[in-house]
Fold this sequence. Notes:
Elements: E1 18-27, E2 30-40, E3 45-49, H1 56-63, E4 71-76, E5 79-80, E6 88-91, H2 105-117, H3 125-137, H4 153-166, E7 171-175, H5 183-198, E8 202-206, H6 210-216, E9 219-224, E10 226-231, H7 233-236, H8 239-246, E11 250-253, E12 256-259
Parallel strand pairs: 3-8, 3-9, 6-7, 7-8
Antiparallel strand pairs: 1-2, 1-4, 4-5, 9-10, 11-12
Amino acid sequence: MNHKSTEINYVRQEPxxxxxxxxxxxxxxxxxxxxxxxxIPHGAQVxxxxxxGAGKSTLFKALVGLLPFQSGSIQIHGVPLGDxxxxxxxxxxxxxxxxxxxxxxKDVILMGRFFTSGxxxxxxxxxxxxxxxxxxQLGISSLAxxxxxxxxxxxxxxxxxxxxxxxxxxxxxxxxxxTGIDSSTQHTTLELLESLRAQQVTVLVSTHDLTMASEHxxxxxxxxxxxxxxxSPADVFTSENLERxxxxxxxxxxxxxxxxxxxxxxxx
Length: 268
Protein backbone atom coordinates (compact mmCIF):
# COMPACT_ATOMS: atom_id res chain seq x y z
CA MET A 1 0.00 0.00 0.00
CA ASN A 2 1.41 3.32 -1.08
CA HIS A 3 1.21 6.17 1.36
CA LYS A 4 1.31 9.64 -0.01
CA SER A 5 3.18 12.06 2.16
CA THR A 6 1.24 15.18 2.91
CA GLU A 7 3.26 18.35 2.65
CA ILE A 8 2.00 21.32 4.59
CA ASN A 9 3.00 24.70 3.30
CA TYR A 10 2.98 27.41 5.91
CA VAL A 11 2.43 30.89 4.60
CA ARG A 12 4.54 33.40 6.45
CA GLN A 13 2.36 36.12 7.92
CA GLU A 14 3.82 39.58 7.60
CA PRO A 15 3.53 41.66 10.77
CA UNK A 16 1.10 44.56 10.76
CA UNK A 17 2.74 47.72 9.52
CA UNK A 18 1.75 49.48 12.74
CA UNK A 19 0.98 47.57 15.94
CA UNK A 20 0.19 48.96 19.38
CA UNK A 21 -0.20 46.69 22.39
CA UNK A 22 -1.62 47.88 25.71
CA UNK A 23 -0.29 51.41 25.20
CA UNK A 24 -1.08 53.83 28.04
CA UNK A 25 -0.01 57.49 27.98
CA UNK A 26 -0.34 59.88 30.90
CA UNK A 27 0.18 63.57 31.58
CA UNK A 28 1.11 63.48 35.22
CA UNK A 29 -1.89 61.85 36.87
CA UNK A 30 -4.16 62.37 33.86
CA UNK A 31 -4.66 59.32 31.65
CA UNK A 32 -4.69 60.50 28.04
CA UNK A 33 -4.69 57.04 26.41
CA UNK A 34 -5.62 53.83 28.20
CA UNK A 35 -4.68 50.32 27.13
CA UNK A 36 -4.65 50.93 23.37
CA UNK A 37 -4.23 47.71 21.40
CA UNK A 38 -4.46 48.12 17.64
CA UNK A 39 -3.10 46.71 14.39
CA ILE A 40 -3.11 48.71 11.17
CA PRO A 41 -2.21 46.88 7.96
CA HIS A 42 0.09 48.18 5.26
CA GLY A 43 -1.59 50.74 3.00
CA ALA A 44 -4.70 51.31 5.12
CA GLN A 45 -6.24 54.75 5.45
CA VAL A 46 -7.75 55.33 8.88
CA UNK A 47 -9.81 58.25 10.18
CA UNK A 48 -9.23 58.84 13.89
CA UNK A 49 -12.30 60.44 15.43
CA UNK A 50 -13.50 61.28 18.90
CA UNK A 51 -14.51 64.22 21.09
CA UNK A 52 -12.19 67.00 22.22
CA GLY A 53 -9.74 65.56 24.72
CA ALA A 54 -10.13 62.01 23.42
CA GLY A 55 -6.38 61.52 22.91
CA LYS A 56 -6.16 61.84 19.12
CA SER A 57 -3.19 64.23 19.15
CA THR A 58 -1.64 62.25 22.00
CA LEU A 59 -1.81 59.09 19.90
CA PHE A 60 0.00 60.72 16.98
CA LYS A 61 2.70 62.21 19.21
CA ALA A 62 3.29 58.82 20.82
CA LEU A 63 3.62 57.23 17.37
CA VAL A 64 6.52 59.56 16.48
CA GLY A 65 8.21 59.39 19.87
CA LEU A 66 7.30 62.90 21.02
CA LEU A 67 5.53 61.51 24.08
CA PRO A 68 6.70 58.58 26.19
CA PHE A 69 4.11 55.97 27.06
CA GLN A 70 3.73 54.69 30.58
CA SER A 71 3.25 51.09 29.51
CA GLY A 72 2.80 48.93 26.43
CA SER A 73 4.67 48.73 23.14
CA ILE A 74 4.56 50.16 19.62
CA GLN A 75 6.05 48.36 16.64
CA ILE A 76 6.52 49.42 13.02
CA HIS A 77 7.28 46.71 10.47
CA GLY A 78 7.57 44.32 13.42
CA VAL A 79 10.36 46.19 15.20
CA PRO A 80 10.13 48.60 18.17
CA LEU A 81 9.34 52.27 17.74
CA GLY A 82 12.53 54.29 17.35
CA ASP A 83 14.27 51.97 14.92
CA UNK A 84 12.78 53.86 11.95
CA UNK A 85 14.08 57.39 11.49
CA UNK A 86 12.38 58.21 8.19
CA UNK A 87 9.40 55.87 8.22
CA UNK A 88 6.76 58.13 9.79
CA UNK A 89 5.85 61.67 8.70
CA UNK A 90 3.76 63.75 11.10
CA UNK A 91 1.88 66.98 10.42
CA UNK A 92 0.65 68.55 13.68
CA UNK A 93 -2.30 70.86 14.06
CA UNK A 94 -1.59 74.30 12.60
CA UNK A 95 -1.77 76.09 15.95
CA UNK A 96 1.16 74.02 17.23
CA UNK A 97 3.52 75.48 14.60
CA UNK A 98 5.44 78.76 15.00
CA UNK A 99 4.53 80.42 11.70
CA UNK A 100 6.54 83.57 12.54
CA UNK A 101 9.86 81.79 12.07
CA UNK A 102 11.60 83.44 9.05
CA UNK A 103 12.17 80.51 6.71
CA UNK A 104 11.29 80.00 3.05
CA UNK A 105 8.83 77.48 1.69
CA LYS A 106 11.64 75.62 -0.09
CA ASP A 107 13.67 75.33 3.13
CA VAL A 108 10.68 74.03 5.09
CA ILE A 109 10.12 71.29 2.53
CA LEU A 110 13.84 70.52 2.43
CA MET A 111 13.59 69.64 6.14
CA GLY A 112 11.65 66.57 5.05
CA ARG A 113 14.81 65.28 3.36
CA PHE A 114 16.85 65.71 6.56
CA PHE A 115 14.68 63.08 8.26
CA THR A 116 15.81 60.67 5.55
CA SER A 117 19.42 61.66 4.90
CA GLY A 118 20.48 63.19 8.22
CA UNK A 119 20.71 66.77 9.48
CA UNK A 120 24.42 67.21 8.82
CA UNK A 121 24.58 66.06 5.20
CA UNK A 122 24.46 68.69 2.48
CA UNK A 123 21.43 68.34 0.18
CA UNK A 124 22.16 66.64 -3.11
CA UNK A 125 20.58 66.90 -6.55
CA UNK A 126 18.20 64.04 -5.74
CA UNK A 127 16.98 65.88 -2.65
CA UNK A 128 16.14 69.01 -4.63
CA UNK A 129 14.48 66.91 -7.32
CA UNK A 130 12.21 65.36 -4.68
CA UNK A 131 11.30 68.66 -3.02
CA UNK A 132 10.46 70.32 -6.36
CA UNK A 133 8.33 67.32 -7.27
CA UNK A 134 6.56 67.60 -3.90
CA UNK A 135 5.90 71.31 -4.43
CA UNK A 136 4.51 70.62 -7.88
CA GLN A 137 2.27 67.87 -6.52
CA LEU A 138 0.76 70.31 -4.00
CA GLY A 139 0.55 73.20 -6.47
CA ILE A 140 2.95 75.50 -4.59
CA SER A 141 5.97 75.68 -6.93
CA SER A 142 5.47 79.43 -7.35
CA LEU A 143 5.78 79.90 -3.57
CA ALA A 144 9.24 78.32 -3.25
CA UNK A 145 11.06 81.52 -2.20
CA UNK A 146 8.20 83.00 -0.16
CA UNK A 147 8.50 83.22 3.61
CA UNK A 148 6.29 80.73 5.41
CA UNK A 149 4.77 83.47 7.57
CA UNK A 150 3.48 85.35 4.51
CA UNK A 151 1.22 82.51 3.40
CA UNK A 152 -2.46 81.86 3.97
CA UNK A 153 -3.59 78.99 6.19
CA UNK A 154 -4.34 76.81 3.19
CA UNK A 155 -0.95 77.52 1.62
CA UNK A 156 0.83 76.74 4.88
CA UNK A 157 -1.00 73.42 5.05
CA UNK A 158 0.11 72.58 1.51
CA UNK A 159 3.71 73.38 2.44
CA UNK A 160 3.64 70.95 5.36
CA UNK A 161 2.02 68.30 3.17
CA UNK A 162 4.81 68.81 0.62
CA UNK A 163 7.42 68.46 3.40
CA UNK A 164 5.81 65.18 4.43
CA UNK A 165 5.85 63.94 0.83
CA UNK A 166 9.53 64.88 0.51
CA UNK A 167 10.21 62.57 3.43
CA UNK A 168 8.83 59.65 1.36
CA UNK A 169 7.20 58.05 4.43
CA UNK A 170 5.64 54.62 4.88
CA UNK A 171 3.19 56.12 7.38
CA UNK A 172 1.64 59.60 7.28
CA UNK A 173 -0.06 61.11 10.34
CA UNK A 174 -2.26 64.17 9.76
CA UNK A 175 -3.69 65.90 12.83
CA UNK A 176 -6.85 67.83 11.92
CA UNK A 177 -5.67 68.73 8.38
CA UNK A 178 -9.10 69.96 7.28
CA THR A 179 -9.55 72.55 10.03
CA GLY A 180 -9.27 76.21 9.00
CA ILE A 181 -8.41 75.64 5.34
CA ASP A 182 -10.11 76.70 2.12
CA SER A 183 -12.13 74.31 -0.03
CA SER A 184 -9.39 74.18 -2.68
CA THR A 185 -6.80 72.96 -0.15
CA GLN A 186 -9.29 70.45 1.24
CA HIS A 187 -9.84 69.10 -2.28
CA THR A 188 -6.08 68.96 -2.90
CA THR A 189 -5.54 67.11 0.39
CA LEU A 190 -8.18 64.52 -0.47
CA GLU A 191 -6.61 64.05 -3.91
CA LEU A 192 -3.24 63.54 -2.24
CA LEU A 193 -4.73 60.87 0.02
CA GLU A 194 -6.06 59.08 -3.05
CA SER A 195 -2.63 59.09 -4.66
CA LEU A 196 -1.09 57.76 -1.43
CA ARG A 197 -3.67 54.99 -1.39
CA ALA A 198 -2.40 53.89 -4.81
CA GLN A 199 1.18 53.98 -3.46
CA GLN A 200 0.22 51.85 -0.42
CA VAL A 201 1.26 54.55 2.05
CA THR A 202 -0.50 54.03 5.38
CA VAL A 203 -2.40 57.14 6.45
CA LEU A 204 -3.98 58.13 9.78
CA VAL A 205 -6.02 61.34 9.82
CA SER A 206 -7.67 62.83 12.89
CA THR A 207 -10.84 64.75 12.13
CA HIS A 208 -13.97 66.07 13.78
CA ASP A 209 -15.89 65.63 10.51
CA LEU A 210 -17.61 62.26 10.92
CA THR A 211 -19.26 62.47 7.52
CA MET A 212 -15.91 62.97 5.80
CA ALA A 213 -14.50 60.06 7.80
CA SER A 214 -17.37 57.89 6.63
CA GLU A 215 -17.12 58.89 2.97
CA HIS A 216 -13.35 58.98 2.41
CA UNK A 217 -11.79 56.36 4.71
CA UNK A 218 -12.05 52.60 4.65
CA UNK A 219 -11.41 52.30 8.39
CA UNK A 220 -12.35 54.42 11.39
CA UNK A 221 -10.80 54.45 14.85
CA UNK A 222 -13.33 55.82 17.33
CA UNK A 223 -11.46 56.98 20.38
CA UNK A 224 -12.17 58.42 23.79
CA UNK A 225 -8.99 57.69 25.75
CA UNK A 226 -9.85 54.04 25.12
CA UNK A 227 -10.74 52.47 21.79
CA UNK A 228 -14.52 52.57 21.46
CA UNK A 229 -14.56 50.85 18.06
CA UNK A 230 -12.28 50.14 15.11
CA UNK A 231 -13.36 48.92 11.70
CA SER A 232 -15.38 49.99 8.69
CA PRO A 233 -17.39 53.23 8.99
CA ALA A 234 -20.64 51.25 8.85
CA ASP A 235 -19.58 49.07 11.77
CA VAL A 236 -18.09 51.90 13.83
CA PHE A 237 -20.63 54.68 13.39
CA THR A 238 -23.51 53.07 15.25
CA SER A 239 -25.68 55.08 17.63
CA GLU A 240 -24.40 53.04 20.57
CA ASN A 241 -20.72 53.59 19.71
CA LEU A 242 -21.20 57.30 19.06
CA GLU A 243 -23.02 57.75 22.36
CA ARG A 244 -20.21 55.91 24.19
CA UNK A 245 -17.59 58.12 22.53
CA UNK A 246 -19.24 61.51 22.67
CA UNK A 247 -21.81 61.17 25.41
CA UNK A 248 -23.90 63.64 23.43
CA UNK A 249 -26.88 63.48 21.16
CA UNK A 250 -26.14 62.40 17.59
CA UNK A 251 -28.17 63.55 14.61
CA UNK A 252 -28.18 62.52 10.96
CA UNK A 253 -29.50 65.14 8.55
CA UNK A 254 -29.45 64.29 4.84
CA UNK A 255 -26.73 61.72 5.49
CA UNK A 256 -24.56 64.15 7.49
CA UNK A 257 -23.60 62.99 10.99
CA UNK A 258 -23.82 65.82 13.53
CA UNK A 259 -22.68 65.46 17.14
CA UNK A 260 -23.68 67.96 19.80
CA UNK A 261 -20.37 68.81 21.49
CA UNK A 262 -21.32 72.17 22.97
CA UNK A 263 -20.13 71.16 26.40
CA UNK A 264 -17.20 68.89 25.50
CA UNK A 265 -14.01 69.16 27.58
CA UNK A 266 -10.94 70.98 26.38
CA UNK A 267 -8.81 69.30 23.72
CA UNK A 268 -5.74 67.34 24.72
